Amino acid sequence: MTKNMVSFMPTLQTGTANTAIVPYEAAFAEEVMLIANKFFGEGYMDKNRLKAMTGGEGSFYAAVTNSQVSGYCFFPYVSAEVCALRMKLPKELLVKNSNADGMVCQTKTMAVDEPFRKTGTADALFEACLNKAVCDGLLSAWGSAWKIGGVIPMERIFLKNEFRLQLEVPYIWYDDRQYKCIVCGGRCRCTGIIYYKLLG
Ligand SMILES: CC(C)(COP(=O)(O)OP(=O)(O)OC[C@H]1O[C@@H](n2cnc3c(N)ncnc32)[C@H](O)[C@@H]1OP(=O)(O)O)[C@@H](O)C(=O)NCCC(=O)NCCS
Fold first, then answer.
1. What's this model's pTM, rounded to 2 decimal places?
2. 169 CA from centroid of ligand 1 (Å)
3. Is residue 1 part of a domain?
4. Does residue 2 fall inside a structural domain?
5. For 123-138, what is each residue's pLDDT tens digit?
């Protein structure tokens, strides 16, 4: 993987003139945790989880508006096996649709603070992360999108970026006992919608 890495700096294309899309750095940690836990629920992100998620190979960007973090997008690169486990999918299904039995880009988590939605910030973050994954030589990207009631907040962005819908996984995050889902008010009973895209 490392030999395929190339440096990458996205061009900013948001509707908010003062917003920059920049590589994630540890100095953003507190603000990222605040945004993540505000929109997903208590215990979703803490220092250890953040460090584990962003400490390895991957594509990690933050949106910074007037020196404050306004959003983040994290795509760790994981083995097909780990990705399948996290998404409660049979490994064979993932490998069959992944172009390779190697590392895959997991579109793990993103959130944009409310005042900065519908500005293009989310699109710019997602595209920066995806472009880096392509530059890094990843062959497929997989994500589980939250379904809240009948609404999938990430649907528009996944479809815009030519991801395909794979299937629905009920109770996808239920095993995470630390996470108190903001929708369920306790252990998460939400459904995840699996999207994937071949990148190679
Ligand atoms: C998911 C999330 C990041 C999406 O943010 P978002 O891009 O602002 O997306 P939204 O779907 O709210 O807004 C998109 C709208 O902004 C519009 N838009 C995009 N770029 C724009 C721009 N530069 N100027 C004006 N409008 C723009 C889009 O056309 C779209 O319009 P529509 O609603 O009329 O179709 C955000 O809802 C969020 O942080 N949610 C909480 C966390 C979450 O659910 N994360 C995903 C878990 S899987």
1. 0.91
2. 23
3. no
4. no
5. 999 999 999 999 999 9
